[in-house]
Design brief:
Pfam families: TrkA_C, TrkA_N. By secondary structure, this protein is of the alpha/beta class. Helix content is 24%, strand content 27%. The protein is elongated, with a radius of gyration of 21 Å.
């Protein structure tokens, strides 16, 4: 897979290193000469150019990329890069970094963004995920299709504890993608049972999140009541 990363700062270089370790081709683009540090990511391709300019993106052969990551520290630049990658070069997957949470509403399909990653929001979500049981935590927003990656730790009192996955009437537009049980990562099948303490990861439409949280957190009825 060929990936172009706009922004060769600490974030861009870190992403490049991970992708290279996983066997992908990576091109780093930055207009600041001081950011071109080939020795830090020697296996990557480097391009000194302005990623907001069509001529630069032509030189980068963006049409050959499977993914473009807009990872600069400037939200305006990330939006322009995303829009050009999607509309001018038809890049299948565009991921954009959100630096200021106030701008998050802009990072959507209209600007060519498939996935928006807000570092402040993600850090907040990870804190919530670590301390919350029974509460739905939004980990990642997928702009395309208005879907989110959400997590909920199944509480002891949930009525679904001990229920098989295939017997649950999940809300529309939701999909259980992973069960994390202790140190194990399980791909759920219909015959798997849900256990209290399971971390459940879903891809769900935003409109279904409250319904999903109610379903998973509902308490067992008291037989005496």
């Amino acid at each position: 897979m060929r990936v172009a990363i706009a922004g060769a700062g600490a974030v861009g270089r870190s992403i490049a290193g991970e992708l290279l370790e996983n066997g992908h081709e990576v091109l780093l683009i930055d207009k600041a000469p001081t950011a071109i540090s080939v020795e830090r990511v020697p296996r990557a391709e480097w391009l000194l150019a302005d990623a907001c300019e069509i001529t630069s993106l032509d030189e980068a052969a963006l049409q050959r990329c499977n993914v473009v990551i807009a990872a600069t520290g400037d939200d305006k630049v990330n939006l322009v890069v995303s829009l050009l990658a999607k509309t001018e070069y038809g890049v299948p997957r565009v991921v954009a970094r959100v630096n200021n949470p106030k701008n998050e509403w802009l990072f959507n399909e209209a600007w060519g963004v498939d996935v928006a990653v807000s570092t402040p929001r993600l850090m907040s979500a990870l804190v919530e995920e670590a301390v919350s049981v029974g509460d739905l935590v939004r980990l990642l927003r997928f702009s395309h299709g208005d879907a989110n990656l959400v997590e909920l730790t199944l509480p002891e009192e949930s009525a679904l504890a001990g229920t098989q996955v295939g017997d649950v009437e999940w809300p529309e537009d939701t999909s259980l993608v992973t069960i994390i049980r202790g140190t194990r990562v399980l791909t759920p099948s219909r015959d798997d049972s849900l256990e209290a303490g399971d971390e459940l990861l879903f891809v769900a439409a935003q409109a279904r999140e409250e319904q999903l949280e109610d379903l998973l957190s509902v308490r067992r009825k008291d037989p005496a009541g």
